[in-house]
Specification:
This protein has 9 helices and 10 strands. The mean pLDDT is 96. It comes from Geoglobus ahangari.
Length: 246
């Protein structure tokens, strides 16, 4: 079996999970099919390969209860999200692991998410719910675009620090300023915005030695795990594992 963090591995349940396959490059099919093969050790995996209708079929399967959960795989993000947003306003919370095997949750990771204090507070509540399902003891660490010693150097940094402080106070969390390296030990990390959150996960998982388990769509009456379409076969398999335990 592929490596899975202990908190996920001990909660695995054999369930039916669908994963999307849209051929946006020459490796898409190989990676998704290999992921289904790997995940076959702990899940019943259905590959949804319906061309231009892949996203619609994937959504219908989980909406109608035909599968326990779906993983986006290489299905198109914008089209899939557009379909979901016709009925719901979901938020995403990413499940990540550092090179030294610390599991933590990160939000926002959608480039258009987490722009206001209100949105960040909603994400924190969703993250706490995901942490509870994973058995992750978590505190909230809120990040900003600089340290307090940087006040006055940049309007953007000043505003980021003020937003982080307010978010931390209202949520019962702690403002870690820009110290991501310390924040991950808290279990829940709130990035300054969705763009920086997306860059954090890409830096950790694609340039560093971290692992991505996907991002849980929160605020839905069914289970969807989002993935980067550039993910490896092993990464897609980890997302399928997460889908069986949420």
């Amino acid at each position: 079996m592929i490596y899975l963090h202990e908190l996920i591995r001990v909660r695995l349940k054999r369930r039916k999970v669908a994963i999307g396959l849209y051929r946006f490059d020459e490796t898409s099919e190989e990676r998704v099919l290999r992921a289904a093969e790997i995940a076959g050790e702990f899940a019943d995996v259905a590959v949804v390969d319906e061309g231009e209708k892949t996203e619609e079929v994937l959504y219908r399967l989980v909406r109608d209860g035909e599968v326990h959960a779906v993983v986006r795989g290489t299905a198109r993000a914008s089209k899939f999200l557009q379909i979901i947003r016709k009925e719901y306003s979901p938020k995403r919370v990413a499940v990540l692991e550092t090179a030294d095997k610390r599991l933590f949750l990160l939000a926002p990771v959608g480039v258009d998410e987490g722009k206001t204090v209100k949105e960040k507070l909603e994400l924190i509540e969703h993250a706490r719910s995901v942490a509870e399902r994973l058995g992750l003891e978590a505190r909230v660490a809120v990040l900003a675009g600089g340290r307090y010693g940087d006040v006055g150097r940049s309007r953007e940094v000043d505003e980021s620090l003020a937003m982080a402080e307010l978010t931390a106070r209202l949520s019962g969390g702690e403002n870690f300023e820009i110290r991501l390296e310390d924040a991950v030990s808290s279990g829940i990390v709130i990035a300054p915005d969705g763009i920086s959150g997306n860059l954090i996960f890409r830096s950790l998982c694609y340039l560093g030695a971290g692992r991505e388990y996907g991002a849980v769509y929160c605020g839905l009456p069914f289970r969807i795990v989002d993935t980067s379409r550039s993910q490896s076969a092993e990464g897609f398999a980890r997302a399928i594992a997460l889908a069986t335990v949420i």
